[in-house]
Amino acid sequence: MSRNTKQVPKEEIIKQLETCDIVRQLLAKKPKERKALVDTYGCQQNEADSEQICGMLSQMGYGFTDNVEEADLVLLNTCAIREHAEQRVFGNVGALVHSKRRNKDKIICVCGCMPQQEYVTEKIKRSYPHVDLVFGTHKLWQFPSLLLSVLQNKKRVFAIEDEGGRVAEGLPVLRKFSYKASVPIVNGCNNFCTYCIVPYVRGRERSREIEDIVREVKDLVNGGCREITLLGQNVNSYGKDLEKAKDFSDLLIALAQLDGDFLIRFMTSHPKDASDKLFAVMEQYPNKIAPQLHLPVQSGSTRVLTAMNRGYTREKYLELIRQVRARIPDITLTSDIIVGFPGETQEEFEETLSLIELVEFEALFTFVFSARKGTPAEHFEDPMPIVQKKENFQRLLDVQNEISERKHAEYIGKTLRCLVDQIDEKGNVIARTPGGRRVHLEKDCGKLGEFVDVSITNASKWSLFGVIQK
User: Which of 62, 166, 330, 469 is deepest in the core (most CB within 10 A)?
Assistant: First the structure.
């Protein structure tokens, strides 16, 4: 199968938009507005996919609700990264049988990464007959046609074929927020880390054309968006599959040169493709590119990294940290760690602890290894007892919590330009520093989506506290 990136032809996109109109006409004949509930699991990429799904649903005439009993359509956009996420999805899908019995016309959809695994689809076919529509990540852009088939034929539809590398432009998007947005730039992954299911469920890397990304970001900024997060399983691989010789650093330059008051973030970066060119661009545009880098290391042991097929060594990773801090001394660094990878020895775990102490990340996303069906690591020998893994995991948390508390204390007395990111129903306000750290502000201060100067007055291992400078 060819893995060269190709765009879905414009005519096929137009067909999907026309199908949205056909569904809208069908729904207009109903006695009341049809409502949809979209439940999203997993990463920011899934959240971005759900915004596109909601855009198509809106164009098809659906309103939205958070009440499953009110919903005429329930869609679960699923994640396959960890076993716990799959179990939670299956539990929630099973519970929907009761709602379906009360409303036999309710349409239940399961989409995303989980159905792209054959065993999952077979389980849904066999054990969850109340599910009407199942489609994988490669069929997302065809959602209107798939839903129309269910509505017209009253038969179950399963669409999980792997189409290879295709990029769909021009579909509607209904964004959750007006002041911040996620913009996918590359989908899929070519790395095949031995523990990871992503290349199997999202396919090979497909980069969007740089002109399409720049146009989308420009429109968002002109519409008042203040924070743009560029998304990809590996943003550093952006452009490798395109005919034009443009890489991720070139994309950042093009975006940073746009007019407007906004900040660019990105995730996730893979250490094997991170470079000093990237760090130089971040240094060059400090007012447009956030001083923040999420650089998953996964392990501090070179032998374990090799078994993971990560493509770099402990020494290479530490050199990257040295390079980026030399250019951006105040950069906020975060990372991912897997504890208890099959075959990891106690000595190798100690290497991970020592790397954490050397780098001093501000925060970590930490996991005890969870074998994913269909990955090479599923079959690796794993002699370390789970009790030992959990003890190591707690030790890691204790070390990182102490580092986080100390690093956060260094913010006290500083004044930072922050984006007001969240205001809850009680008036509690949370802003984000340029490095992405949470800052709790006084109640009823600041407007959602505005930049404010914040004086940091206190800190904990989890968050910062501050007041807006008038």
Answer: 62
Q: How many residues does the chain have?
A: 470
In the sheet where 133-136 sits, what is the strand order? 63-64, 35-40, 73-78, 107-112, 133-136, 157-159
Q: How far apart are CA 371 and CA 375, in angstroms?
A: 8
Which fold, 291-410? Answer: Transcription Regulator spoIIAA (3.30.750)
The reported pTM is: 0.94
Q: How far apart are CA 49 and CA 39, in angstroms?
A: 11
CATH superfamily of 415-468: Nucleic acid-binding proteins (2.40.50.140)
Which residues does residue 335 pair with via DSSP β-bridges, in sequence order? 364
Name the H helices within 168-223. 198-202, 210-222
List the structure tokens of 9: 């032809």
Which position has the token pair 């952006």?
A: 238
Q: 461 exposed, middle or buried (CB, 10 Å; 0-12, 13-18, 19+)?
A: middle
Contact 186, 233 (CB under 8 A): yes
For a pLDDT cut of 90, what percent of the chain falls above it? 89
Q: What is the pLDDT of residues 159-171, one digit of tens each?
A: 988 776 689 999 9
Closest CA to 259 of 222, 311, 233: 222
Tokens at residue 166, please? 């295709």
Number of H helices, E strands in the chain: 13, 20
Domain 177-290 in CATH 3.30.750.210? The answer is: yes
Alpha helices in 141-209 (DSSP H): 143-153, 198-202
Q: Which residues of the chain have pLDDT under 70?
A: 1-5, 164-165
Model confidence pLDDT, tens digit, residues 368-387 = 998 999 999 999 999 999 99
Which amino acid would we find at residue 69?
E
Sign of CA dihedral 40, 95, 375, 300: positive
The yes/no answer on whether domain 6-166 falls in CATH 3.40.50.12160 is yes
- Residue 121's DSSP bridge partners are none
| Residue tagged 């209904």 (tokens) | 174
Residue 252 has phi, psi (to 5 degrees) of -60, -40
